[in-house]
Design brief:
The chain is of the alpha+beta class. It has 16 helices and 27 strands.
Length: 575
């Protein structure tokens, strides 16, 4: 296949090539207005399996002549901003159909994508596919909604959002698009009818948390103008509300952008387009935080029995793999075409041309993790079951029994304390047990309205804590309270271990900086058929504070709680 990528040395075009350059069946024409930039970009990729060819292509020039000269099989428009294409916005599509070239674009504007089906008849006559919006919005979101709603009789609401890493790198055209629609009216479906929204002036908070992984921090999302707002209505016309957002970080910059968008909405300024260069500079210079990104899609409605359904899909991308996701729809379609399964002829939004399994095959080769959560049953699920979602069933049976049916457990443990006097004082203040090589340990837990009190007894020394599901900034985290201190932890499944990873801490509800927080290595596992725990707590100023480890077995003869609710064993929790 000969693939022409318009904007090939730009942000999105470059990512498409990065994903496809290992394909020896491809000749990729890296095109843009500058031949020098195209040549430099091709040289920077080094030795790759695909053949890279730099070329000049000007979408405002003689398109027929340029296509006839380059003779591509498929063209990918990765330039944009599509919102600013003006009256001749579909010139490139028309030229591709006239020249017998298949067409894909990464359009992110709802108006542009909504207008593409007008070329459906012409594309069918020519035997060509013309697919618009070939990106996370709306291709991936539509695929996820189909999976989430596969057994539902009615879909009431669809919400989704993307939270990019602050280090993802954002191109000028993307910023120009955002500046162009910020605060402007956009058509959407809300509360069962047609309505107007104003991008970047409507917000919601959400925590992206694939089960068994460290979640992203609770994120502020703002409404964005994306094709989903219209394209999804065609396939789920009964949906009463469809809302899509973006959650850029750092949040302080996001809030500044919200403030500027409100100036447009109330009419004080006409558009943010004049400050697009400043927005681009700030986005790519003023950045800090974790190099992680994510995405969520949430669906509510009714199941086959008429009962309420609420499900969500979560994606987490570590490091540099996250920015590649918007280009993966193009990668998937190109690879399927090379394997003899091209999209059907016609012009349309690409919402039905890929399924979630197509994406999952690509995610598997990256540090990208996904998972599902089903909250249809409300808040009456056991604590660990709710937090671990669909990874709960992957835990070893001994761990699940401890966190689901056991009310009382007994075993043996060893306890160590560090030599530092401050560390010893800290251990005494918290109430940790004294050092011992081999000591009996007994754990009792009590459940009350979704919270669990765990009482540990090492020999004759006991101490207790209270655990509950976090809210707000600690949403999707397990919180444990020791007196005035509360620690918020992620439940992480790693191989045959269940780990607890500290994310936040506070005193009397006031957040404390993480650089002051104690360090912890805590996990549960199974050895020789026994549930085993390991807890190690230290601090840079004190060194080791306490380390206790050992094994436990249920001692409740019935193997279940008699208090009317499942319970959990706390033996491996944080301080």
């Amino acid at each position: 296949m000969k693939l022409l990528i318009v904007g090939g040395y730009g942000i999105f075009g470059g990512r498409v090539i990065q994903l496809l350059e290992n394909e020896p069946r491809l000749t990729v024409i890296v095109a843009g207005r500058s031949l020098a930039k195209a040549e430099t970009w091709c040289e920077s990729r080094g030795a790759v399996a695909a053949r890279l060819m730099p070329a000049v292509f000007d979408r405002d020039g003689d398109l027929a002549a340029q296509l006839a000269s380059l003779r591509p099989d498929t063209l990918v428009d990765a330039s944009g901003p599509f919102q600013a294409y003006g009256e001749g916005r579909y010139r490139l599509i028309e030229a591709c159909i006239d020249q017998g070239v298949n067409y894909l674009d990464l359009a992110d504007g709802s108006d542009f994508v909504a207008g593409v089906p007008v070329f459906d008849a012409a594309a069918r006559r020519a035997g060509l596919f013309v697919l618009s919006g070939v990106s996370s919005f709306p291709v991936l979101t539509a695929a996820v909604v189909r999976r989430l709603s596969s057994d539902m009789v009615r879909v009431d609401t669809i919400r989704g959002g993307i939270a990019p890493s602050p280090y993802a790198g954002v191109g000028e055209n993307v910023i120009r698009a955002i500046a162009g629609y910020a605060g402007q009216p956009v058509a959407l479906v809300r509360d069962g009818g047609k309505a107007q929204g104003h991008p970047l002036t409507e917000q919601m908070r959400y925590t992206i948390a694939p089960p068994g992984r460290v979640p992203l921090n609770n994120t502020l999302f703002s409404l964005v103008d994306v094709p989903d707002l219209r394209a999804l209505v065609e396939f789920w016309p009964q949906a009463k509300t469809i809302w899509m957002g973006a959650g850029p970080v750092p949040e302080v910059l996001h809030r500044a952008l919200i403030g500027f968008a409100w100036l447009v909405r109330i009419g004080l300024v006409r558009s943010l387009s004049p400050i697009a260069p400043l927005m681009h500079w700030a986005t790519n210079r003023l950045r800090w935080g974790e190099h992680r990104g994510g995405m969520f899609v949430e669906v509510t409605g009714a199941g086959r029995t008429g009962s309420p359904v609420k499900r969500s899909w979560h994606l987490l991308a570590e490091g540099n793999d996250g920015p590649l996701i918007p280009a993966m729809a193009v990668e998937a379609l190109v690879r399927k075409a090379l394997d003899g399964h091209p999209p059907a002829p016609g012009a349309r939004a690409a919402v039905r041309d890929l399924e979630l399994e197509d994406y999952e095959a690509l995610f598997a080769a990256k540090t990208i993790y996904t998972g599902f959560r089903d909250e249809s049953g409300g808040t009456d699920q056991p604590l660990y079951t709710a937090l671990l979602g669909d990874t709960w069933r992957d835990l070893q049976e001994e761990i699940r029994i401890m966190h689901d049916r056991t009310r009382l457990a007994e075993g043996r443990a060893s306890v160590e304390r560090g030599p530092n006097i401050l560390g010893r004082l800290t251990a005494w203040l918290v109430g940790f047990p004294k050092p011992s090589v081999d000591i009996p340990v007994r754990v009792r837990f009590d459940v009350d309205k979704g919270e669990e009190t765990w009482t540990r007894t090492f020999g004759t020394h006991g101490f207790s804590s209270r655990q509950f599901e976090g809210r707000g900034r600690s949403e999707r985290l397990l919180c444990e309270r020791f007196g005035p201190l509360t620690f918020a932890m992620a439940l992480v499944t790693e191989g045959d271990r269940l780990k607890l990873v500290l994310r936040h801490w506070s005193i009397l509800g006031l957040p404390l900086p993480m650089w002051l927080c104690p360090r912890s290595t805590s996990f549960e596992t199974v050895e020789d058929g026994r549930f085993r725990f390991h807890v190690e707590i230290s601090h840079p100023l004190t060194g080791l504070i306490v380390r206790y480890r050992g094994w436990l077995e249920p001692s409740d003869p019935h193997g279940s709680s008699t208090m009317g609710a499942p319970a959990a064993l706390p033996s491996s929790r944080q301080p």
